[in-house]
Write a structure and sequence with these properties.
101 residues, mainly beta, four-stranded antiparallel β-sheet, three-stranded antiparallel β-sheet, 7 strands, globular
């Protein structure tokens, strides 16, 4: 039996910049941070892509970074706040950051 999935586009509510969460001062700098509301009663999976000054945070040939992917299993129907899809990517003031969900 084949399962069917309806693709639903969920918009990012806001993009802002905060220090890395749950780390010491040695990991200083800002990280791209998003808020999003997850729709209820739907099993969703999310993929985030981020670029800084036009350079993707993850390239096709990298062996160290991975694409940020998550299921909504634990936050179905809730508002997700202060999520940092790319914890290891520091952002400096003045840089152009694009996050796609």
């Amino acid at each position: 039996m084949r399962s069917r999935c309806a693709c639903v586009s969920v918009a990012i509510d806001s993009l802002y910049f905060q220090p890395r969460q749950n780390r010491s001062a040695e990991s200083d700098g800002l990280r791209g941070t998003i808020d999003v509301r997850n729709p209820e009663r739907e099993a969703n999976y999310y993929l985030w892509e981020q670029s800084v000054d036009g350079v993707p945070s993850v390239s096709a040939d990298t062996s160290f970074n991975f694409r940020a992917v998550a299921s909504d299993e634990f936050y179905n129907g809730r508002r997700v706040t202060s999520y940092q899809p790319y914890l290891d990517v520091r952002v400096r003031p003045g840089q152009l950051v694009r996050v796609r969900q």
